[in-house]
Amino acid sequence: MATALISAQQTSGKTRSPLALWHLLSLDAPTIAAVWTVYVSRSFGVMLPWSAPAALAVAVWMLYAADRLADAARGKDLRERHRFHARHRHAFVGGILGAVPILLFLLTQMPHTLRLAWMLQALPLAIYVVAVHALRLPRVPKEHMVGIFFAFTCFMPALLVQRSLPTLIAMAVFGALCWLNCAALARWERTSSATLDAGTAWAAGHLRFACFGLASVATAMVHTSHARIIALPIVLSCFALATLDEKQRSMKAVHLRALADVALLTPLLTWHLLHFLDR
């Protein structure tokens, strides 16, 4: 992975901002996954070893880098992130291969139950990847799948300890946030509604209304002690996405795409609230 990051930065034909590189190097999704996993776990009283979020970040980076390489190989509807991966494909392939032993080592340092749960979750994910890239099935609901997998992945440590109704509700609302993030990207990248499912097409066409609606649903979670700590960053993310939608025309496409993922890092703003749960 380090090989890909260093080579891609050194061989880039023009200077890019740290924000753009964070997105183009496929570091955005791993950051979101690691931050939310630790935050959710702490919210429900689960203390994770450092190896768990580290392994998750490496695995998500490998998945996203490979996905963008595969999209670039198809040569249709390419965005800057796809063209960047295509230009530096050898570095990314080397990085993915180099990350394999790192991931295997980190997996050995994780709790057995969580390791098994995440590995079992990877099976339907592999089927989905095959459906999209190998079989090239039409109308695969990518936006919904992202929401489902991110929600289950980030909430898995909490689910293994506390499978209560508040946990499941919080997971569903977080999954809806991830889905809404994808709908926002579809709107800003002018994705044809014919390639989207009906729900995502509606959300893309009524993004701000959808953001405020999800924020209202998240606000209703404040009645449960653990879920209320999760509700606040979700509300902040919804307002961040709505604000980006209002300002989108004044931003570069690559920066707008990166900021859409920054909008999901709101747990960093509310992290200090976690210590109240430890009292």
UniProtKB/TrEMBL annotation:
The keyword Acetylation does not apply. The chain crosses the membrane at residues 20-39, 51-70, 91-110, 116-137, 144-162, 168-188, 200-221, 227-244, 256-274. This is 4-hydroxybenzoate polyprenyltransferase. It comes from Terriglobus roseus (strain DSM 18391 / NRRL B-41598 / KBS 63). Keywords: Membrane, Transmembrane, Transmembrane helix. Signal peptide: none annotated. It comes from the Bacteria.
